[in-house]
Write a structure and sequence with these properties.
The chain is an alpha/beta fold. It has helices at 9-16, 51-61, 73-76, 78-87, 96-103, and strands at residues 23-27, 38-41, 64-70, 91-94, 108-111, 121-125. The longest helix is centred in the middle third of the chain and has 11 residues, at 51-61.
Length: 129
């Protein structure tokens, strides 16, 4: 049994299968989930687990070379925008509609219980060397 890091066996296993360039969509409870990507649904109740908690845990285990978020987050959810800006160095903003289009190419979707709008980010995996 693991004693640290991500303990959810479905999420831990899905992360281990990712490679360079793969996309991971971390999304709020309301984001439409496209057909195709593997989905690990962590949502339990409204706000649980939060987008911040899940993003923090994922960033501790993944090498991320870039990320994309909806520009609307800046006005609609300043706390999420600040979290993204402080956690990700290579962050691009696109329209929410464009983010939904891009998410169809994600390899993994991690759905949180977040109940605040536009708490979504598409991470692009990098390599550790």
């Amino acid at each position: 049994m693991k004693k640290a890091g991500i303990l959810n066996r479905h999420l831990s296993g899905a992360l281990a299968e990712l490679g360079h360039g793969d996309g991971v969509l971390v999304c709020d409870a309301g984001m439409p989930i496209p057909d195709g990507p593997r989905v690990v649904d962590l949502a339990f109740r409204a706000g649980v687990p939060s987008f911040a908690e899940v993003l923090e845990g994922l960033l501790a285990e993944l090498v991320v070379e870039g990320a994309t978020a909806a520009a609307e987050v800046r006005d609609a959810n300043p706390a999420a925008a600040e979290l993204l800006g402080g956690s990700l160095t290579e962050l691009e903003f696109v329209s929410h509609e464009r983010l939904k289009e891009l998410s169809a190419r994600a390899r993994l979707v991690v759905r949180t219980g977040e109940a605040r709008p536009y708490a979504n980010v598409l991470l692009r995996c990098g390599v550790f060397f």
